[in-house]
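Same chain as my last thread, 779 residues:
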Amino acid sequence: MEHASAAAIIDARGTVTGWSDGARRLTGYPAEEAVGRAAYELLAEDPPPEAVAARAGTVLLRHRDGTPVAVPLRACEVLGPDGAPAGFVITAEQPAEADPTLAGQAFQQASMAMAVFDADQHYLRLNDAACQVMGVPEEHLLGRHFAAAVEDAEHSPGFGRHLRHVAETGRPLHYESHTRAPSGSRYHAWNIEMWPVRNALDELVGVALAAFDSTEQHWARQRLALLNEAADAIGTTLDVVRTAEELVSLVVPRFADFASADLFEWVLGPDEPPSMLPEDLVLRRVAHGSATEGTPEAAVHLGFTDVYPPYSPPARAMREGRAVLGRAGDPAFDRWVRERNARAPRGKRYREGAHSMIAVPLRARGTMLGVAVTVRIGHSDPYVQDDAALAEELASRAAVCVDNSRRFARERTTALALQHSLLPRGLPGQAAVEVAHRYLPSGSLAGIGGDWFDVIPLSGSRVALVVGDVVGHGIASSATMGRLCTAVRTLADVDLPPDELLTHLDDLVSHLAAHDGDEEVAELGATCLYAVYDPVSRRLTFAAAGHPPPALLLPDGTAECVPMTAGPPLGVGGLPFEATEMDLPEGAIVALYTDGLVEDRDRDIDHATSELCRALTAPATSLDALCDTVLKAVLPEEPSDDVALLLARTRALGADRVATWDITPDPAQVAQARQAATEQLTTWGLDEAAFVTELVVSELVTNAIRYGQPPVQLRLIRDRSLICEVSDGSSTSPHLRRAHAYDEGGRGLLLVAQLTQRWGSRQTGSGKTIWAEQPLPPP
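reply #2:
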């Protein structure tokens, strides 16, 4: 208020008889309400005695609105015609408008807001910056109590409490505040310093303050904190959708009232990115969030697609490759909001306050993945260029994580497809064992491992059971698994015993390592278990290269891990592999598995192995059901490695399905062998196979007698096919050769190969066995 014109006249009885317009502005009372009233009615409290004696001092007046106003007053006595006191002229002292001192000028012109209060929190002086913050001239505040001057301000309670604290304790105080200024709607950050003011007698007579507007520094710290948090909060998983959700959760509500993330369809699938952006930008909504429960602002539902027209800020952001700011009043922004309102009118009232947005492209490694949008509705501050830079940084980090997730998912899918293509899809039909299997790829970030298994039919109704594990994860391990699986099948066709097969496989791995030089060879350290079961002798022979031993469930319900010598992993070289043999009763279950089933850093392997044996004894309606029971009982909820499990229930070929004859090494015995075989076929009801069988027996027995060594033995096996085997004591294997027109021999094995389904030879402990198989009609 303008104190220079604030004046009042009081007569000798203390009644107000004159009232200036300045007095009205100072107290709020118009002249018609003030004149004629007792002067003491305008006081908030009795004036100090020293002020009465000096007729000058600060007096606390009561404003018309009831608030006290501290005003420096001076009284001038007025004499009547007789020279007697007739009253007083009371004037409010005029503050120094222009302090002549340099210190006064520095105070008034300081860039930070400064103010002085008396001990009771009444304004005594403010500089220009403080008046600008308060939004009113200094005259409107002088003498007024702080709480009465800014009673609706957000910072008022805390500010007043700090003023009282300094006045009561006499100690300075520093604190930070983040509130709206009384003169505006934007949030500001303030660094406030308060300190006591003392007079020459060291008495506290007031409190001074200086408030520095640190809004820019505050937001810079907030942006830096948000970026630091983004490093930990975004990309915690290798899941594309989850990464987008983490970006949205980070920015809402701290940076935006609504946020969304939309991705191109190919980002979520196995397709390659297009060479250029299509004309119509069609994206799928993968994540959105809102400060309002239920996300009512969203015009696109999660999982649905949306077409972004060229004028829209998101389309511009993707085509220009930069953040695009939009504000209410911009034609493109307003058109965008109208389009959203028309599409989803239920959320219109929530979008009415939308005043600012940022559309920022999600781009990584030069590839456009999608767009993120942030919108401010309840936030009073519109987005500025610094906010756009922050949004670009956050989007860049999120885009890299999305691209990593996409690449991981693609590599995982490729590795899994490769692995599934190499694993047996339909196990071949054979009578030796009934099999069931499970393969569980790991869900860990390391990727798909190199676990594998196989069931390989061998000659003589025997079957090979194989499980293996390749060190490492990913496509390289899957490819390595394929190489080893193929090598094992090739060696199995040679019909090598398990220990010899592993020796050849070990040599192969060492050979690969030697030729690959210093490069890492994934085969090194791989493990394998190879077992052969013969349903005729009911014997299981197996050997392992660094692989866990098999578990065995006998028909009596007892289960145990078979003791064996595991041998070194593949690629070590120079160390032998030992084969273990055991006779099994019909109906025994052999469990072969990879180490992921029983080994884990948080589990004891002995305990897991005991759990495996215990699970095998659980009642189950089938082998498939038993597989599920074992996995459920032994595996943790989230296995850290791939798991392959192969269960085989043994069968036996009885004596009624096997016929054996010892052959005297005399060419005359060939006819008797043919006759014996024909009679056996008649007994089995297989007369239709007699013609081919006679030719096969005649050729194989003749070759054994002519080129082999005794003892010579003929064996017929009736399984799903008819198997003819001739064994002799020579280790020399026969081979097909092209017979010339006038050769007397050389056509026998060619004839056998043409008449039978397949044929071959295998080495035995005492020589070799030549075998041939004929298909039989289904029973």
